[in-house]
Write a structure and sequence with these properties.
- The protein has about 260 residues and is α+β, with helices and mostly antiparallel strands.
- Helices cover about 20% and strands about 25% of the residues.
- Strand 9 and strand 10 form a beta hairpin.
- The protein starts with about 30 loop residues before the first helix and ends in an 18-residue tail after the last strand.
Length: about 260
């Protein structure tokens, strides 16, 4: 009868280390452990996603708040530069060796197809042209008016510049959009005593208005989540340095200062 030999079982692992049976084979995660881990990851991901969405919403809100004021400021600056560079209508500069210039400053009050104020002004200035930069510094015809975009239906403030005033055929003007989604564009002209809704230099002793008040209204959504349209109003008064209207007794029926 043989003798049964006894051998000690393999040493157990340290507490906290998963083992399977007595063979010392490491075991995998249970289904419950996987579900708990995935739930924790989902909670963290949801929290991060919410924080990221809140950041994007805040950025969009800030953009919607700042954009109209910035757009209006840029548009007003362009209009101001044009008006401050306006030349005197029908000026005679032969005494300084410059050929006489024949041009007018004409502005009228009008409305667009919506029935809103949409004034137009046409004058001559030595402003820059966006396309033909080789003619910058020369006198050009400048027109400011609100035009409806046939593709989008929106109303835009447009600047048109004709640079070649001596051409036999009317050249195609350089055109640029100053700002989009315009609710109204209103101009008033100061003669030194009163504000007028229109100006015709041929009836005002060939003078420029002393100042022009520009009121620009823009249409913008209320917020990133609210598409309701709101109207924002911006106003700027621009002095015309070459104007003598305030001192001319022939302007405004002889009521110069």
């Amino acid at each position: 009868m043989g003798v049964l030999a006894w051998s000690a079982p393999p040493p157990r692992p340290s507490p906290g280390v998963p083992w399977e049976g007595e063979r010392g084979t490491p075991r995998g995660f249970t289904l419950l452990e996987l579900i708990v881990a995935m739930g924790m990851v989902a909670i963290v991901a949801t929290a991060l996603g919410s924080a990221l969405k809140a950041s994007f919403d805040l950025a969009n809100t800030a953009q919607l708040t700042i954009e109209p004021a910035r757009t209006a400021a840029l548009a007003m600056t362009m209009v101001e530069q044009d008006l401050q560079n306006a030349v005197v209508p029908n000026a005679n500069w032969t005494d300084i060796g410059v050929a006489p210039f024949s041009g007018t400053f004409e502005a009228e009050q009008s409305t667009d197809s919506r029935g809103r104020e949409s004034d137009e002004v046409q004058f001559y200035a030595n402003s820059d042209s966006p396309v033909h930069i080789d003619a910058n510094g020369e006198i050009k015809q400048v027109t400011l008016q609100v035009v409806q975009d046939t593709a989008t239906g929106e109303y835009d403030l447009v600047r048109r510049v004709v640079r070649n005033l001596m051409a036999q055929d009317q050249p195609q003007p350089d055109e640029e959009i100053i700002c989009r989604n315009v609710a109204s564009f209103t101009l008033q002209y100061f003669d030194g005593t009163n504000w007028n809704t229109s100006w015709d230099s041929t009836a005002e002793d060939n003078t420029l208005p002393a100042a022009v008040q520009v009121t620009l209204q823009l249409e913008r959504p209320m917020s990133a989540k609210n598409s309701t349209i709101k109207t924002l109003t911006y106003t700027r008064t621009i002095m015309l340095p070459l104007s003598t209207a305030a001192l001319d007794p022939n302007v405004n029926g002889g009521s110069g200062l």
